[in-house]
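Appendix B. One record, verbatim.
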Amino acid sequence: MTAVLGISAFYHDSAACLVVDGEIVAAAQEERFTRRKYDARFPARAAAFCLAQGGIGIGDVNYVAFYDKPLVKFERLLETYLSYAPDGFRSFSAAMPVWLKRKLFIRRAIASAFDGALRSPVVFLDHHESHAASAFFPSPFERAAILTLDGVGEWSTATFGSGDGSRITLDQQLKFPHSLGLLYSAFTYYCGFAVNSGEYKLMGLAPYGKPVYLDAIAGHLADLKPDGSLWLDMDYFNYSQGLTMTGPKFHALFGGPPRTPDSALEQRHMDLAASIQRFTEEVVLRMGRHVHERTGMTNLVMAGGVALNCVANGRLLREGPFEHIWIQPAAGDAGGALGAALFVTHQLVGMPRRARTPDAQRASYLGPEYSADAIAVVCRAHRASEQAFTDERDLLDTVADLLSAGRIVGWFQGRSEFGPRALGARSILGDPRSTDMQADINRKVKFRESFRPFAPAVLREHAHEWFETRPNDDSAYMLMVAPVREDKRLPLSAADASALAADPDLVRRVNIPRSLVPAVTHVDYSARLQTIDERHGRFRRLLERFHAKTGCPMLVNTSFNLSWEPIVETPGEAYHTFMQSALDALVLGDVLLRKQDQPLGLELRAAGGEPGPASPWADPLTADPLVVSADAAVNRRTGAAYPVEDGIARLFVPTDATEFTGRDVTDVVKQFYEKTPFPNYDDIDTPRALMEKARAGMFARLLNEQIPYDARVVEVGCGTGQLTNFLSTAHRTALGVDLCLNSLRLAEGFRRAHGLDRAAFAQMNLFRPALKNAFFDVVISNGVLHHTGDCRGAFRRVGQLVRPGGFLVVGLYNAYSRQVHYARRALYRWTGITNSWLDPHFSRMTAAGKRDAWLQDQYNHPHETSHTIDELLGWMDEDGFAFVNSIPKPEPGPSMTGDERLFEARGRGSALGRVASQIAAVGNGYQEGGFFIVICQRRSEAP
């Protein structure tokens, strides 16, 4: 047995692959296990999976193959920095510590990852050699030309050569800094997308524009030769010596500075995308023709990041000289692990290779799979309502019916895909005939840009009937774009044609139907094809059932993930994505879950009759149940009624003076927030924007991920309800209550504008809440209790809402770190001066309304108190709560980590440790105003 473990790591999208006796046993990206998108760390978990899949240990591996040569790459970096010195010092100083600590010592890192058990030699391959091997060896060709294109490896940015049997040869290269990949990434950066991940967004944006800047690119930036090689004028770029891709001359040439991420896209950006895309296609066509002339071969294989440009690939197949093209599905750095392992196996060890049809990559289903028992465990853990099937035909019939009825389905089957595309194992599926499907999946499921197109997964034997391809052309990996056939297109009205040409609203432009399958037809009548054959197993059988029922041989197929996450790997991740989005159904192996059947924690609005057991409402004066409808909140026993105005139940009752120990500041605070609702929605205009803001804060993201979906959740003192609305974007009911009506109107307005039907808002006094006691699983009250006249009494009162075993989440100003802000506030009140140097929060707020709200809340608030963790611990003991967690922790150390388990109990620490931890967090008083959070769990009924 000859076993080779391939590794790519430390640059972008690390991965591992195991090849045994020439067979690809397993391959996976590290991001699928760590849930860190494009994770570049050493792929320890991916490697462990590959070895387990092969039934071997690291001691059984004959060779470890690393996908590039770090020392040669380091040489290139040093030479580049020296050639630009003293410019580029910031870039040099940022890069060198990482290289000196980790990237120069790959052999040591590999040995360390396997705890010293590695005995086999480590072989370092040339970067483009690994790409070339990944393209040729799994391909169906005995002989083929090879073309690799990416940003840069060691020195090469593109290579070509040929493969024959068990050997590959690279004959010619294009060298750094002249790179088609880096040129495309420069425009990606300039148009406001992330380099190394946003290039496909730029490709999707291109059809909305015209290539009006093509001459500027060819005349100023790049001297393109007949053979496809190009020479870049580096005066326009900054990637060789700086921390950005483009420089001042680039900005001047194209009319201004780079677009700020997530700001509005202008027609200029669309035209820039169209221009660089057209230029890229021309380069690829010229290179293809040159390679054909030099090799004389009729088959071509491709790899490297630029090989993921499926528009250019489609043109090369249709207009170029090659009869067949095969592209590595994991064409980027991840695929380098596979190429390295195959190169060692065939070229160095000399193991014979046999070309296979359709290829040796088995539909790229090379990742982990999960048993029926593993799926059952997930369903039980989440108390999910499910339907199990024993007959596959019944399952496929049911799913095909759901799809044909316009439902969006999460599809989780078998081994996961290797590479960036969902290929029918971890997919989101929809009906391509639907005019709303494209917009619904983008906005409500993926939470991403509206202009992004979707791919059709089409039965291979029917692809040529709908798209301009040859009969039985193979495009199993979604790497070719083809036009929709003329007879399947829809004529555009004059108004539609005008909108397509000029309307700045991409949502309207993308929603104009252009074919009989509008959900997979881009604005230029193109589609990114995935042809489906027997390799795809159950996925193909589903397509066959859908075809038989509808006459349509295709489905919308997009990756099963939210836009900020890697593709789901496990059944648990699939379930969470299902519940966090507007997916209508989820298929986990033989199990079907329908969203409408999944439990919700609260009954927020009653249609009539008596309130059910999930109704949270209680009369604030008598504690009798309330029936809350769209018109009123009614106490059926007494006949008392409270108004519901603009969707907000008006349940505020003034506090009896005997109910608290402090000065009643309720009216003063209420009037203050009526004038300046905080926080407001100035820079939040969509659920996606709200989600991005909440996730950026980490704590809200962790709450959303860890609060059960059927939990009864209330936010007491919700302000403008951003957290409540955010929590309800998942399939979870959430109730937000506050005393300030103006703030609640902003919350309700956002909820109503975006159809967040699982949220509700009510006006009430937290000392007289119109809610049932001992009812809620999670009560959240952050930044509220310290604005009451009796913080201790307020804690006791909101704690009474928590059921036994439920959780209370309280955030208060910290008596230690708040002192920093008190000094800052005194300076402001004395001088009237505040700025981003004095208060960094101002520099993070781009909207004027946000800045004003922060100024009023932090510098002009009429009442607040500050407290310590020990103070809260005493309150918890008195009220029957057990300490669970705090931020900062009760001992010095990290305040919060990305994988923090918020609701898992930890020790209370020592009195000295708690003081030290809070003092260590004094810097928070400068950064955020000084705040701490405590999570506690109710032991029993509060005293």
